[in-house]
Please model this.
Amino acid sequence: MSEIRQYPLMIVDDRAAAGTLDVSAPFDGALIAKCATADRQHVESSLSTAHHLYRARSEWLSLPQRIDILERTASIMAAEHETLAINAAREGGKPLIDSRVEVTRAIDGIKLCIEHMRTEQGGLVPMGGTAASADRVAFTRREPIGVVVSVSAFNHPLNLIVHQVAPAVAVGCPVIVKPAADTPLSCLRFVEILREAGLPAGWCQCAIIEDRDVAEKLVTDARVAFFSFIGSAKVGWYLRSRLAPGARCALEHGGVAPLFVLEDADIDAAIAATLKGGFYHAGQVCVSVQRVFVPRAMARDFADRLAAGADKLRIGDPTSPDTEIGPLIRPAEVKRVHEWVEEALAAGADRLAGGAPLSDSTYPCTVLLDPPANARISNQEVFGPVVCVYSYDELDTAIDLANSLPFAFQGAVFTQNLDRALEIYSRLDASAVMVNDHTAFRVDAMPFAGLRQSGLGVGGIPYTMHDMTIDKMLVLRSDAI
Model:
């Protein structure tokens, strides 16, 4: 049995911890670590420290200092690549083969911050085009917006933290991060690495908070300038409504991602992509393929072939290099997903694969054909390993059905016809449409935005860095211009 690590408070405060959070592996329930937790006074200390650093401009870290810190951070992470991947797989349940990719992406995210720091520092504002602006030159410089508070989710325990914390460090904002209670260990290690790389402790603090009122106090304090949230829509929209006047925010929630397979599609490619995009991390991805629309004449065959592929995916211990699908994050999620599947079956859906829990922590890759539109699995984010195939007669009707929900994030279409691809792109309610790829495609430099109830603002390393800064303009007037 491996040693149970004890994590101390990572807040600038000398007082004892409020309590201890036990962190267990979702696959087998084994205790992994114990983490010190913060109370209201700790939160006050963290906010006071962060606010002081922001207000004391003489203590700001210079651009070369921040670049050096992030370069060392990337180097430390690269040296610990396999350890970081194993730890993320164990605490979050994402298979090791995918957790390795997550660590690689996280390191690349640090490098993206550095690239953007060196190339995006302001711009010229046109002057002299009118008599009123004659004899003037103007430009902007990027300055940090202020104290950042980041609240994160469990499903990518390292890379999400990098997306929410590294941009703040890059632009010079003091940041306080609250990781998901299920997966705080990757976050804690990342904060440790930042400090090992030379970041003074006050510039990045980690608050493990069990009390919801205390967590709300952290988010809604008047000293918070920017709030970054990844998680459920219910919590995100509520916290946004409670922000202090002037605080800005970015919210990333979930979707019920649609994928279209047209008559001329490469079916083998579409099935392979749907298997990956629908069952990756047991479907616990905000842009996971959930709804697949297929012409009626092709739908049954497509669904049968998808089900055959789903049955072959290896489910098990996420730390095993052979595992393709790991557990859901909690046993309660297994029960919930199964309830949704049973509801759809009772309402007339055909079950072609899966459909019954394998254990308290694992659910099989499940394929349903034609669940009714009013079933929860058709109109809410399942966040589990379930893909629904819907047969359609008219593409217009299928597009209307895809657009009928209050969620809009990423979508996809498989076709060899450029005009049809552009038609889907133009008509589908989505912030991004993938052609001949699954809905969960993402690289970390691209914009990533949930629309309507799926979120607010634009994620992605460069876009988050922009959100965490202000464009401060200087206007110079001189007869010599």
Summary: The mean pLDDT is 97. The longest helix spans residues 96-119.
